[in-house]
Specification:
Blueprint lengths: L13 H18 L5 H10 L6 H14 L16 H15 L5 H9 L7 H17 L16 H9 L4 H8 L12
Helix pairs in contact: 3-6, 4-5, 4-6, 5-6
Length: about 180
């Protein structure tokens, strides 16, 4: 069983969280028939991994055009990982953890998403993405239980993560810029 299956976004390493957000944005754009290439490219540049953008687009186009079945990605506000997102993250994390080794297992994971002739293409993009993220210091993984981001914001977000969304919004603020200050 994957560490990612059903995992909450706030439990992911920042690299994994970024990729899930990018995947969701790419799919939402494709479904609405609008090109999000520039938006995705700007996001990768802002995250300081612009070298990953081309492989990311190839990965998503390969999945989009050669999927064995309907692939499900979450909406922007979904707080948990879908089974297909988990499978992709698992392949990326495996590739990253094994330093590009274990080609067969990544190809096997890829073959669960796309038709067999396209699995090597998908696996190659997964390798490129995982290597580039790793070289940039961005891990694809699940944070250990109780491990905060190391900032007050991370600690507060982790503490609030178990509360219902309405309470989190009231305490944290709709803008997600931090706790709401209320003058008394």
């Amino acid at each position: 069983m994957s560490d990612f299956a059903g995992c909450r976004l706030d439990r992911l390493e920042p690299g994994a969280h970024f990729l899930v957000s990018a995947m969701r944005e790419w799919v939402i754009g494709a479904q609405s028939r609008r090109c999000v290439c520039a938006t995705i490219d700007r996001a990768f540049t802002a995250y300081r991994v612009e070298q990953v953008a081309a492989s990311f687009h190839r990965m998503m186009r390969t999945i989009s055009g050669h999927a064995q079945t309907s692939i499900y990605f979450g909406q922007r506000d979904r707080e948990t990982i879908t089974a297909h997102e988990a499978l992709l993250l698992e392949a990326l994390a495996h590739s990253q953890a094994h330093n590009g080794e274990g080609e067969e297992s990544v190809r096997r994971l890829a073959s669960h998403l796309v038709h067999a002739p396209m699995a090597p293409t998908l696996a190659e993009q997964i390798y490129r993405i995982s290597r580039s993220l790793d070289c940039s210091g961005h891990k694809v993984g699940v944070r250990a239980p109780g491990m905060a981001e190391g900032t007050l914001r991370g600690i507060v977000q982790q503490a609030l993560s178990g509360l219902p969304l309405s309470l989190r919004s009231a305490l944290w603020g709709a803008s997600d810029q931090g706790p709401v200050s209320r003058d008394v």
